[in-house]
Amino acid sequence: MAGISDTPIRVLYVNTDEDFTELVQTKLCQADADIEFIHATNARTAVETVSVERIDCVVTAYSLADETGIDLTESIRQQDEDLPIVLFTGQGSEEVASESTRAGITDYITIRTDRDNFELLVHRIQTLVQAARERRAAERINNRFQRTLERTADAIYAVDTEWRIEYMNEQMADRVGRDPETVVGTVLWEEFPTITGTKLEEQYRTAMETGEPISFEQYLEEPFDYWVKVRAFPDEDGLTVFSREITDERERQQELERNEAILQKIHDVVFVINEDGRIQFANSAAARVLERSRESLEEERLSGIVSSRVSDSDAREFKSAVTETLQEIDGDGGVTGLYDFDLQLGLRVGTKRRVFDVRLTPFQSTMNRQVLVVARDVTEQSQARNQLKRERDALRELQTVMADSELSTDDRLTELLEVGCQTTGLEIGIISKIEGDKYTVRSVHTPDGSIETGDRFDLESTYCEVVVAQDSVCAFSDAISAGKSSHPAYQQFELESYIGVPLVVDGNRYGTLNFSSPTTRESEFGTLERTFVELLAELVSSELSRDRSRTELEQTNQRLESLIEAAPLTIMEIDRDGEVLLWNRGAEQMFGWSREEVVGEFNPIVPKEGQSEFKQHRQQALRGERIRGKEIQRQTKDGERLDLLLSVAPITEAGGEVTSIIAVLDDTTEQKRLENQLRALQETAQQLSVARSREEIGDIAVEAAVDVLGFDITGIWRHDDRENALVPITETTAARERFSESPRFTPGDSLAWEVFESREIHVCDDVETSSSVYNPNTQIKSEIYVPLGDHGLISTGSTVGQRYSETEVDLFRILGATVEAALARADREEELRRQNERLNEFASVVAHDLRNPLTIASGFLEVVKETDDPTHYEKIESAHSRIERLIDDLLTLARGETLIEDTEQINLTDIATEAWGYVDTSQATLTVCDQAPVVAGNAGRLTQLFENLFRNAVEHGGTDVTITVGGLDDREGFYVEDDGQGISPERREDVFEHGVTSNKGGTGFGLSIVADIARAHGWTVSVAEGTDGGARFVFETDS
């Protein structure tokens, strides 16, 4: 029978022949000692036996007293279609064989003389029984699997080796929002592209490649907010995936583990048996009593295991109790747990006989009817009763403490320690936190307060050193007996008894839970105390974990609240109706309403014309959509309109419903204002680019300073090269009204000149602190100077002290840069204009003035050739002389009024006398007065100036003219006058123009050269009537 089962085969043999029956029994039992032989003499008895007893195989003769074996088979088949039935008879025929087949006989053996019929019968019985048992086992497994699939709440789908979806149950379809029929046949990665590249894909491919099942947990973020456990099972056909939500399981896991620990640690023997009497569950106590492993007990018949350990009467009583208990399930309509059956049994445990109180409780599982068997050793009944009471009391106390939701973490831990002290009978309870070799008291319960929370010790000075080292429970009731007399904890604290367990929080070692007392304990710590302390440690670990989570959450919330409050932005939360729930400090500062004024009220910052837009934004967010960087306008409490950037995000609850909206507003008003200012400055630059004069440029610039930058007091100065001074060009109206005249700045007299020379911008927020102020009594309190390169300076100021922002300074610098560029362009255009005018003058001279003497010379040369009259050579020579003079004047004029940079102090007496010698003065007379001044100028150019004046006087005043040079009495300068015929008043304005002359032989450039040289020195020149009626040329050198 080896290989079939350890359970004996119960064979029911049906025959009226008692002698042959005895022979069959003898043969069968000799062939297989595991066969239990049962005899029935007629069909009726046989049918009854099959209905009430476990029969593995029926062997029947053909002829029976009341009917045939065929009839018997048909009756049995009405009850059991799978029970093996063998027709064992000497009445063999084809008719009998045919009837046997139709009736459902499993095998048909005819008795023959040429073989060992009984050996064949035994073999057939073994084979049929084995096949039947294997078939029933397979059916049980298959049925159990089918029921599991039908009843499972898991989301399930399967793919083939090409990742095509072959199956998807309704749970999975509901989860992903798809129709199972539409997804079957599609490729997983194409149908659900969002899982590509995720942990799911990585795990699935690993399972498919290795052929090994995998199981992992994954958190699904908002809006789901729950955990799932994924199990993937690969096979040759592909991969089957089970996905189950485990959020509640995670929370229940610790509770289940605690219950499992209690169940395995309690002294009671616990079995669960099915209606066949087979063990479905056995706890550690049961395995220990029966001296077997828990695994080896499962599916064994409990009656068979204990039969050799109990008396026959106890065995029958237990069997009857099980039957009666199962019947109660049917009797109470399927309601379980309303009936208990109690009995007392004696059981041999090891070499001793122990007495157990046994309670049988029926219950209906999803699979079948079952009985819970709980047996308690009552040999030491009093001790067991006391232990039970203590256990129940302790658990009740723990339940009360854990159920009190109003307790803080510290209070809950303290009360747990108090329950622990009561249960263990020890005085001191401590929860310790251990870091390295340091032991810190996290919570404590003591009768005298000698130890307080926060006290620190060296780990090696405590008994917990062993707990940490061994990572297990450590307990002793007598320190001396346990060899602890030299331990620091005994030497210092005189602790006689101790029990401690490791504490693990969130998977990491935290410290210990320990109880101790300065007195010895009457008895050793038993399983009750150890189990209780371990259970208590789990509760403490759970509480510490929750406290850590709460603390981290509170810290996160505090940081978030601090961030919201410190943010310079408006951060606000509104509900679905638009009422304000959150209003941070940035919102108060930006809009002017306090938190107390706003919270609970409708959002006040939305103007009337913006209500529709606000409603649209709110509805958009309530649909779960986000808004990022939307430009809007809102109003402050004072009615000011602000340009803002709006960002909005919905806030959802656990169920995914949007409950409120968080909005962040960034004030871009200043940015918008800056953009407008920059745009206006760009337009100003365009205006400056077409301005023609310094004055026009100045007017445009100061107007922009007022209108664009808001700088009411602004002025522009140009650098006068001749005077080496900063001369005002223009100023704003406010500056003109406040200061009647803008000052001139010269080297070393002001901060303005320092800025011009350094070419660096200067910002002075407090003028009174500056040592370089031009006017110490000025009304200006703060100012900005921006140099305009070589062209001058632009400045703005305020009569009210203010600190200029970087933006204001930068904008004013930009304005200065555009003004500098405009002045440079204007200077270039002015120089170009003068060059063009001079070019035109040259063209005029070449076209007219030079052509006339050339024509004269050419004409007289023709006359000479024709007449050979030498008197005409004088005419030709005169024309050539005129041409030479015109060329000299043109070269002088070419230098024009180019600014003279290098000057020296020149005595006019000397320079006039020198120039007199260069002119054919005939009988003219030069007089230089004693008061002739010393001037700053260029000697060569001044010599040319006097030459032209002297030549002009001789040519127009006569050969005996008298010319006088002297200084001016009322102002800086000098004069040159003659006593000739003078210049009429109507011609005095034109005499300095190029080509103007009253002398027939003159070039018309002399006086224009004089004017150019004067302007090159920065002087002004004018002509008036002389003292003696001639012409008087006046040069003012301080203009």
From TrEMBL:
Describe the reaction catalysed, as an equation.
ATP + protein L-histidine = ADP + protein N-phospho-L-histidine
In terms of Pfam families, this protein maps to: GAF_2, HATPase_c, HisKA, PAS, PAS_4, Response_reg
Response regulatory domain residues are 10-126
Q: Please list the residue ranges annotated as the PAC domain.
A: 339-390, 628-680
- Note the Gene3D superfamilies from the entry: 1.10.287.130, 3.30.450.40, 3.40.50.2300, Histidine kinase-like ATPase, C-terminal domain, PAS domain
Q: Keyword Coiled coil: yes or no? A: yes
**PANTHER family given for it?**
HISTIDINE KINASE 1 (PTHR43711:SF1), TWO-COMPONENT HISTIDINE KINASE (PTHR43711)
Put simply, this protein is called histidine kinase
Which organism was this protein described from? Halogeometricum borinquense (strain ATCC 700274 / DSM 11551 / JCM 10706 / KCTC 4070 / PR3)
Q: What is the lineage of its organism?
A: Archaea, Methanobacteriati, Methanobacteriota, Stenosarchaea group, Halobacteria
